[in-house]
Amino acid sequence: AALALVVGVVPAASATPQAAATATAGLVPLPVLVEEDTRARPYVIRPDVSIVAPGAAAPVAELLADELRAATGYRVPVRPRGHGIRITVDPTARYTVDGAAPTAESYTLDVSHRGVAITARTPHGAFNGVQTFRQLLPAWAASPTPVKHDWTVRAVHIEDAPRFAYRGIMLDVARSFQDVDEVKRHIDVLSALKMSVLHLHLADDQGWRIEITNDGKAEGDPIDYTALTRVSGATAMNERGHRQELGRTGYYTQAQYRDIVAYARERFVTVVPEVDVPGHTNAVLHAIPQLNTDRSLPARDAGTGVVPWNGTANVGYSALDERHELTYTFVEHVFRQLAELTGGPYVHIGGDESHAMGHTRYVDFITRAVPRVQAATGVGTMGWTEYAEAGLAQGPGYWDGSVVQYWIGSGDWVRDFVAKGGKAVVSKADGAYLDQKYGPTTPIGLSWACRTDCDFPKYYNWDPTTTVSGGIPEDAVLGVEGPLWSETIRGGDQAQFLALPRAASILETGWTPAARKDVTGFTARLARLGARFAVSGVNFYESPAAAWA
Ligand code: TNX
């Protein structure tokens, strides 16, 4: 009779600071089921705390131990047996998630005065449970240096699983570069919000950011692939109109890129690498003379015979020659190496805004390039909305792993694409583009996609099944993504400022069942998360729409 249960969402009337201190306070994304016994004694982390994590749970436990050690100054050993914070990975674990069967990413989390138990069938599920547990801790637990604090955690029972597997954020490191440490920091911050995919936009008109070697070149291929980074790794966005600073140049060596991929993998984040073709290729054509023909765009400079570097924000003017066999040799070589370096299920071929070459030439390119990339890499291909406009349909196995990423335009193409068995990642520009200004006074950001009211509530209030005009079925949706283009961004702090808190809106849309989403509750939970950001030195926009705790 003493049980006071708070199940699922915070009731709408509870957006006051005091009422927000209920079971779900600070939890983003909102778990499927949260039950709190408000009379139960809390768990207290004491100096002798240990994390009990046998077998496959140990690496996940070490990540939690690192955070607890830093903030508490306690020793926090990770042991295979004993008492404390217990993390169990057991492929046969029996539990339910609001009555449903466990899934690969699901977990349960129980906190009582006797201890903590996180149970999952996979390490990824355990990692998800740990992220939720971290959000139950006082915000000071995110401190990089020891703090004297009362480390209590309220008693709670949580059952949780994601709605979609693909919960992505995209970083455009092409217009303006971000170094390895900056990218790792984004992985830390966003994986805590259960991001599962980091999409890296590695090449665009203004620069090329991933080392490609000549190893494994096709017979007779005359291209020197090292020119991509030697020449176009040294260029970036060079338009002062948006910002006082020029874009950052640079690139990842293959060793650095592998390091990013490994770091992401330890946090159960899949990297999706993108090299944008056949448009957005000025940096390619500037670096590789053999890809320049009478049909590639823009034309070579008559005097130098070279395609000039172009650091403006212009789009749609560049194109590879779709009739030039070497174009496909190039594409195969680049994506084969990218797929080997990444080891993930997809490579992203871009495919957006190839305006200058026109529709027919574009369709020819996609129709030839996609099967060749799929064959060369053995993985699925992703492309922006226009990719679906190529109407790919022929050939056995043609659709294997194919994904359209919806950003703009008619829903007809996307509906046609998924009707043929393809999947969709939804990142509609007006509501998911993290590079847009929050409002007219935001110092950085573009405003073509979202002109007014571009704060986190708008980025929260949409659903991937209905935001594509005409609608697409739930099972056609692989997930959602927030792209962060970098025309106006210089470095990791500015990236965080535009991404947060709106990335949280998108990641909750990817995780939480649609019926449990509620912007009022989200706002209250987000406000608590702000304290964590502040303590850990994460930059974010202090939106007036939230009462930051
Ligand atoms: C459109 S979205 C683009 C990018 C720009 C972005 C700026 C897409 C597939 N193409 O090239 O960076 O707008 O918001």
Structure description:
- It catalyses: Hydrolysis of terminal non-reducing N-acetyl-D-hexosamine residues in N-acetyl-beta-D-hexosaminides.
- Residues 164-513 form the Glycoside hydrolase family 20 catalytic domain.
- This is beta-N-acetylhexosaminidase.
- There is one protein chain.
- This protein is an alpha/beta fold.
- The protein folds into two domains: 12-160, 2-Layer Sandwich (Chitobiase, domain 2), CATH 3.30.379; 166-280 and 307-321 and 348-514, TIM Barrel, CATH 3.20.20.80.
- 30% of the residues lie in helices and 15% in strands.
- The protein is built from 16 helices and 18 strands.
- An eight-stranded parallel β-barrel has the order 10-11-13-14-15-16-17-18, surrounded by six helices. The chain has a seven-stranded mixed beta sheet with strand order 1-9-6-7-5-3-4. It has a two-stranded antiparallel ribbon with strand order 2-8.
- Mean pLDDT is 93; it is low at 1-21.
- The structure holds ligand TNX.
- Ligand TNX binds next to loops.
- The site of ligand TNX has 11 residues, from loops.
Write a compact overview of the structure shown.
By secondary structure, the protein is an alpha/beta fold. Helix content is 30%, strand content 15%. It folds into two domains: 12-160, Chitobiase, domain 2 (2-Layer Sandwich); 166-280 and 307-321 and 348-514, Glycosidases (TIM Barrel, Alpha-Beta Barrel).
